[in-house]
Structure formats: structure tokens, C-alpha cells
Amino acid sequence: MSAVSVVSYRNSQGELFREGCERRIVHTSQLMTVLLDLENGPWAAADPYHSHPHEQTTFVSEGEVLFLVEGDAPRHLRPGDLVAIPSGRPHAIQLLSVRARLVDSFNPVREDFLK
């Protein structure tokens, strides 16, 4: 039987992966969930587009972001909104509020996020 993993927000140190952007990660062998805390908004421009072979879902827990998908109209996302991104689809975000909290899930696990 596999072990259960718990990441306590209060008792864990997030990984600062760039200024104002911190993540906490929990995963199984097939699924990864990433809590993203974004600050220093609103951003003047969107992040560069990127893509990856992983399927991704994103839940907006707090704040507002502009969600961009190459070839689609930008979408203004607010708390409670969800988005699903197919594998390989170029996408980006722009922080519209002072801060935001996003919950991303990936399948398969993003090995590049693991230390």
C-alpha cells in the first residue's frame, strides 16, 4: 500500500521559483498538485508562453489572472474558475490583482518541479 502525503501550509516552506512566486507541491506516482502563491501584481505583461507534455488543470482560489492560450481569445479568470489545458498547448498567465492563489494539477507528474 502506498503512503499518504500531506503538505501542511503552515508547517511547510514554499519554493520561491522567482521573485513573488512561490509553490508547494504534493504528488503521487501519477498526479501532481501545485499550490501557487503569486504576488507583486498586477503584472504589466503576461509571462512568456510555454508548453509541456503534461495535461494540466488550474483552479483560481484567490485573485484574478488573464489566461492566454495560443490561438484563443484571452480569458479573465476569477476565484472559483477552472481551466483545463491539453498536453502540448502553449499557454501563459498575467496577474491582474495584487496577489493570486492558483491550484494546478498535472498528469503525469512534472519531474522538472521535483528536487
Question: What descriptors fit this protein?
Answer:
single chain, 115 residues, mainly beta, Jelly Rolls, 6-stranded antiparallel beta sheet, 3-stranded antiparallel beta sheet, 9 strands, 0% helix, 44% strand, globular
Description:
With 115 residues, the protein is mostly beta strands. It has one domain (15-113): Jelly Rolls. Helices cover 0% and strands 44% of the residues. It has strands at 15-18, 21-27, 32-38, 55-62, 65-69, 75-77, 82-85, 91-95, 100-107. The strands form 2 sheets. Strands 1-2-3-9-4-7 form a 6-stranded antiparallel sheet, with no helix packed on it. A 3-stranded antiparallel sheet has the order 6-5-8, with no helix packed on it. Strand 1 (15-18) and strand 2 form a beta hairpin. The chain is globular. The two termini are 24 Å apart. The model has no long low-confidence stretch (mean pLDDT 96).
